[in-house]
């Protein structure tokens, strides 16, 4: 079994105060702590052994129990009947090889590692010796005065990237570190003072757990039968898990031959094979939630119960499949008794009214009586009960969440959705609920969100047109409607597609007499000066557009890049224009005294309309052709594609042609392409379409701008 390290409590007797270590651990485990490390440097071995025995009793298998350093105390506590799951060792403590030998293959063994030397020592150990690494400190902490230099989050990330072992972040970890550390690759958070010194360790642990779950994708296991028609069983569960934001897994309890009109046959594989499936999953993957559905007989139920006792998943949602639609009981007496025992391992039970009646052992008369029966069942099992009113007569079909231990009784009103497509609704609801709970939602909120999703799936089910009987719900109706089906392109794909879209523009620029004459030196001075004068007008306004891109930029890096580009357009490029247009003079008003040509006006009007529309992504797409097409042309001029004349130092426009292949401008162009294609890749499809349109329009304006000098001469 792979250990769930998500919330790891390291005890400190001084911080626990009058409440004591045992009281603190009890409350912290109530709140969701998954692993407890007893650490007490001042206690004797005998005292440590006694504490382990008491903690084992209090934890009662709800979390793993480890001891820091004291391997012999762990062995002594085991001899006294305590469940001690393993040890955490420092680099200088008892040999990790001896710990593995004496504690056995199933023990959990952790090792401190916070330096390259530590990691090298770990890599030298035989595979399977160590289960996880405690990596830190993350930031300075008063609970360990002799700690090594703080790693910080990025230092922790660097360690994670060098090892395949799960890494727990420890040392000065607070709740606001949760998201950053999980993103950095943490398998869990080891917390000392934030839990030991908390006013209520249960509330604090719950807050940590919510933040941790919300920061990742929940891994949800369905233990249920199959439905080859796809509407119920594990097929429905996997769709529901995915539709609610989880990663779904499945262990098959039974194979059925069924469709929307009914069940034709059931095959139950040996229970031992079910256990093999369950062990294969839990030996490799941390399971955040389990949904339990169809369990065909007592052997299967007991197999699931035994596995749950070993793994202790943090969330178990049990859908008690006990009564067929016809009203027939699906389980024999032995299986029903085993299922009642299984309820004690569940956190939430989701019976319909018929199943609630069987579990309560009495007839249920109406909704109020159903709520009373749910309270009885919750009190008897310790689980919350989501009682479903879909089998009530009439148009009102409420549901209710009842948890007597937590003092919760929340009703959810609803009107019946008129549809025959109800196949698999119970399966879908329970697996969706398990996923929502594993995402960190409270039980009350998770039920509300699950019901909203399922009701939408019911409303949209007719469009599926599946089967002649009771069809399935449309699990992905909302995603199909709001998320579309197109895959998101990569920046590299955007770059290739957009460049291909400019092939005609680029060919048109290459064939322009202005470009050909500029390349071979035959271009008359008058059209060249015309081009420079128009380009000066263009650059003055283009710099303002670049400045607007800087203002709208979402990150400091992008803001700085577009600001530098605006400065370069004014300081660098306009100074070069002045050397041709007003020799011996600085950039002044005389440079801008010419009338703008129609091509200049059209290009600038396009840029300004995009710039001051306030859409950053569309604006930088419109800016890009001035970088990209200009650099491409310069690179090819200097590669000799337009003839050797362009490379001649005595070329009449040699100083100007040199600017086309300026390395600094090439670097700026590469950065501009990277920023624009990254923005397009992450944009919504509609925004990406607008970006492409702006890019193509600007590209066409580039062609017209290069054509204007000689077109103007012909017109004159």
Automatic annotation (TrEMBL):
<feature type="domain" description="Thiamine phosphate synthase/TenI">
    <location>
        <begin position="7"/>
        <end position="195"/>
    </location>
</feature>
<comment type="function">
    <text>Condenses 4-methyl-5-(beta-hydroxyethyl)thiazole monophosphate (THZ-P) and 2-methyl-4-amino-5-hydroxymethyl pyrimidine pyrophosphate (HMP-PP) to form thiamine monophosphate (TMP).</text>
</comment>
<feature type="binding site">
    <location>
        <position position="144"/>
    </location>
    <ligand>
        <name>4-amino-2-methyl-5-(diphosphooxymethyl)pyrimidine</name>
    </ligand>
</feature>
<keyword id="KW-0479">Metal-binding</keyword>
<dbReference type="GO" id="GO:0009228">
    <property type="term" value="P:thiamine biosynthetic process"/>
</dbReference>
<keyword id="KW-0418">Kinase</keyword>
<dbReference type="InterPro" id="IPR004399">
    <property type="entry name" value="HMP/HMP-P_kinase_dom"/>
</dbReference>
<dbReference type="InterPro" id="IPR016084">
    <property type="entry name" value="Haem_Oase-like_multi-hlx"/>
</dbReference>
<feature type="domain" description="Pyridoxamine kinase/Phosphomethylpyrimidine kinase">
    <location>
        <begin position="227"/>
        <end position="473"/>
    </location>
</feature>
<dbReference type="GO" id="GO:0000287">
    <property type="term" value="F:magnesium ion binding"/>
</dbReference>
<dbReference type="GO" id="GO:0008972">
    <property type="term" value="F:phosphomethylpyrimidine kinase activity"/>
</dbReference>
<feature type="binding site">
    <location>
        <position position="69"/>
    </location>
    <ligand>
        <name>Mg(2+)</name>
    </ligand>
</feature>
<feature type="binding site">
    <location>
        <begin position="37"/>
        <end position="41"/>
    </location>
    <ligand>
        <name>4-amino-2-methyl-5-(diphosphooxymethyl)pyrimidine</name>
    </ligand>
</feature>
<comment type="pathway">
    <text>Cofactor biosynthesis; thiamine diphosphate biosynthesis; 4-amino-2-methyl-5-diphosphomethylpyrimidine from 5-amino-1-(5-phospho-D-ribosyl)imidazole: step 3/3.</text>
</comment>
<feature type="binding site">
    <location>
        <position position="68"/>
    </location>
    <ligand>
        <name>4-amino-2-methyl-5-(diphosphooxymethyl)pyrimidine</name>
    </ligand>
</feature>
<keyword id="KW-0808">Transferase</keyword>
<keyword id="KW-0784">Thiamine biosynthesis</keyword>
<dbReference type="GO" id="GO:0008902">
    <property type="term" value="F:hydroxymethylpyrimidine kinase activity"/>
</dbReference>
<feature type="binding site">
    <location>
        <begin position="192"/>
        <end position="193"/>
    </location>
    <ligand>
        <name>2-[(2R,5Z)-2-carboxy-4-methylthiazol-5(2H)-ylidene]ethyl phosphate</name>
    </ligand>
</feature>
<protein>
    <recommendedName>
        <fullName>Thiamine-phosphate synthase</fullName>
        <ecNumber>2.5.1.3</ecNumber>
    </recommendedName>
</protein>
<dbReference type="InterPro" id="IPR013749">
    <property type="entry name" value="PM/HMP-P_kinase-1"/>
</dbReference>
<dbReference type="InterPro" id="IPR034291">
    <property type="entry name" value="TMP_synthase"/>
</dbReference>
<dbReference type="InterPro" id="IPR004305">
    <property type="entry name" value="Thiaminase-2/PQQC"/>
</dbReference>
<comment type="pathway">
    <text>Cofactor biosynthesis; thiamine diphosphate biosynthesis; thiamine phosphate from 4-amino-2-methyl-5-diphosphomethylpyrimidine and 4-methyl-5-(2-phosphoethyl)-thiazole: step 1/1.</text>
</comment>
<dbReference type="GO" id="GO:0004789">
    <property type="term" value="F:thiamine-phosphate diphosphorylase activity"/>
</dbReference>
<feature type="binding site">
    <location>
        <position position="172"/>
    </location>
    <ligand>
        <name>2-[(2R,5Z)-2-carboxy-4-methylthiazol-5(2H)-ylidene]ethyl phosphate</name>
    </ligand>
</feature>
<keyword id="KW-0547">Nucleotide-binding</keyword>
<dbReference type="InterPro" id="IPR022998">
    <property type="entry name" value="ThiamineP_synth_TenI"/>
</dbReference>
<dbReference type="GO" id="GO:0009229">
    <property type="term" value="P:thiamine diphosphate biosynthetic process"/>
</dbReference>
<dbReference type="Pfam" id="PF03070">
    <property type="entry name" value="TENA_THI-4"/>
</dbReference>
<dbReference type="GO" id="GO:0005829">
    <property type="term" value="C:cytosol"/>
</dbReference>
<comment type="similarity">
    <text>Belongs to the thiamine-phosphate synthase family.</text>
</comment>
<dbReference type="Pfam" id="PF08543">
    <property type="entry name" value="Phos_pyr_kin"/>
</dbReference>
<feature type="binding site">
    <location>
        <position position="112"/>
    </location>
    <ligand>
        <name>4-amino-2-methyl-5-(diphosphooxymethyl)pyrimidine</name>
    </ligand>
</feature>
<feature type="domain" description="Thiaminase-2/PQQC">
    <location>
        <begin position="513"/>
        <end position="708"/>
    </location>
</feature>
<feature type="binding site">
    <location>
        <position position="93"/>
    </location>
    <ligand>
        <name>Mg(2+)</name>
    </ligand>
</feature>
<dbReference type="Pfam" id="PF02581">
    <property type="entry name" value="TMP-TENI"/>
</dbReference>
<keyword id="KW-0067">ATP-binding</keyword>
<dbReference type="InterPro" id="IPR029056">
    <property type="entry name" value="Ribokinase-like"/>
</dbReference>
<dbReference type="InterPro" id="IPR036206">
    <property type="entry name" value="ThiamineP_synth_sf"/>
</dbReference>
<feature type="binding site">
    <location>
        <begin position="141"/>
        <end position="143"/>
    </location>
    <ligand>
        <name>2-[(2R,5Z)-2-carboxy-4-methylthiazol-5(2H)-ylidene]ethyl phosphate</name>
    </ligand>
</feature>
<keyword id="KW-0460">Magnesium</keyword>
């Amino acid at each position: 079994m792979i250990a769930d390290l998500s919330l790891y409590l390291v005890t400190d007797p001084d911080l626990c105060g009058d409440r004591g270590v045992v009281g603190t651990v009890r409350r912290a485990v109530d709140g969701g702590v998954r692993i407890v490390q007893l650490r007490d440097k001042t206690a004797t071995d005998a005292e440590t052994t006694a504490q382990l025995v008491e903690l084992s009793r209090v934890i009662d298998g709800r979390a793993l129990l480890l001891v820091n350093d004291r391997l012999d105390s762990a062995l002594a506590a085991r001899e006294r009947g305590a469940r001690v799951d393993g040890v955490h060792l420092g680099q200088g403590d008892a040999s990790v090889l001896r710990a593995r030998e004496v504690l056995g293959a199933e023990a959990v063994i952790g090792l401190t590692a916070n330096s390259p030397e530590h990691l090298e020592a770990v890599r030298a150990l035989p595979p399977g010796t160590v289960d996880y690494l405690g990596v830190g400190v993350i930031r300075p902490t008063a609970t360990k005065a002799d700690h090594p230099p703080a790693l910080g989050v990025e230092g922790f990330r660097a360690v994670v990237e060098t090892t395949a072992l799960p890494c727990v972040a420890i040392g000065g970890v607070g709740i606001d570190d949760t998201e950053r550390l999980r993103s950095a690759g943490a398998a869990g958070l080891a917390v000392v003072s934030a839990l030991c010194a908390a006013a209520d360790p249960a509330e604090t642990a719950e807050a940590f757990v919510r933040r941790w779950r919300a920061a990742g994708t929940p891994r949800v296991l369905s233990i249920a039968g199959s439905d080859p028609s796809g509407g119920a069983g594990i097929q429905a569960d996997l769709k529901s898990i995915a539709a609610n934001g989880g990663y779904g897994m499945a262990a098959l309890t039974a194979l059925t031959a069924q469709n929307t009109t009914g069940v034709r046959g059931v095959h139950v594989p040996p229970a031992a094979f079910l256990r093999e499936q369950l062990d294969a999953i839990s030996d490799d993957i941390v399971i955040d939630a389990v949904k339990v559905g169809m369990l065909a007989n007592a052997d299967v139920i007991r197999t699931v119960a035994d596995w749950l006792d070993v793994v202790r998943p943090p969330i178990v949602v049990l859908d008690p499949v006990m009564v067929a639609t016809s009203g027939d009981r699906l389980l024999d007496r032995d299986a029903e008794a085993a299922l009642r025992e299984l309820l004690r391992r569940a956190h939430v039970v989701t019976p319909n009214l018929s199943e609630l009646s069987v579990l309560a052992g009495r007839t249920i008369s109406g909704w109020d009586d159903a709520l009373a029966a749910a309270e009885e069942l919750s009190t008897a099992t310790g689980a919350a009960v989501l009682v479903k009113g879909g089998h009530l007569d009439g148009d009102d079909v409420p549901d209710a969440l009842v948890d007597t231990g937590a003092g919760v009784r929340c009703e959810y009103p609803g009107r019946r959705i008129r549809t025959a497509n109800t196949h698999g609704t119970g399966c879908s609801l329970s697996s969706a609920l398990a996923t929502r709970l594993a995402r960190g939602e409270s039980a009350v909120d998770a039920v509300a969100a699950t019901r909203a999703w399922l009701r939408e799936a019911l409303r949209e089910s007719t469009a599926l047109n599946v089967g002649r009987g009771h069809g399935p719900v449309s699990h992905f109706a909302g995603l199909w409607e709001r998320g579309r089906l197109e895959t998101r392109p990569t920046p590299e794909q955007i770059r290739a597609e957009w460049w291909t879209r400019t092939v005609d523009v680029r060919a048109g620029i290459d064939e322009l007499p202005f470009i050909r004459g500029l390349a071979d030196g035959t271009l008359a001075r008058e059209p060249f000066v015309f081009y420079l004068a128009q380009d000066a007008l263009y650059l003055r306004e283009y710099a303002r557009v670049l400045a607007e891109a800087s203002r709208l930029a979402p990150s400091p890096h992008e803001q700085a890049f577009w600001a530098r580009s605006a400065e370069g357009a004014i300081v660098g490029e306009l100074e070069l224009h002045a050397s041709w247009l007003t020799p011996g003079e600085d950039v002044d008003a005389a440079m801008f005294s010419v009338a703008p040509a129609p091509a200049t006006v059209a290009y600038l009007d396009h840029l300004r309309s995009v710039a001051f529309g306030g859409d950053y992504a569309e604006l930088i797409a419109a800016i890009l052709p001035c970088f990209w097409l200009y650099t491409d042309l310069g690179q090819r001029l200097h590669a000799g594609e337009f003839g050797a004349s362009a490379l001649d130092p005595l070329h009449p426009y040699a100083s100007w042609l040199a600017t086309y292949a300026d390395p600094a401008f090439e670097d700026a162009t590469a950065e501009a392409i990277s920023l624009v294609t990254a923005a397009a890749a992450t944009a919504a499809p509609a925004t990406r379409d607008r970006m492409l349109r702006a890019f193509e329009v600007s590209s066409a304006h580039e062609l017209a701008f290069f054509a204007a000098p000689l077109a103007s001469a012909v017109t004159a």
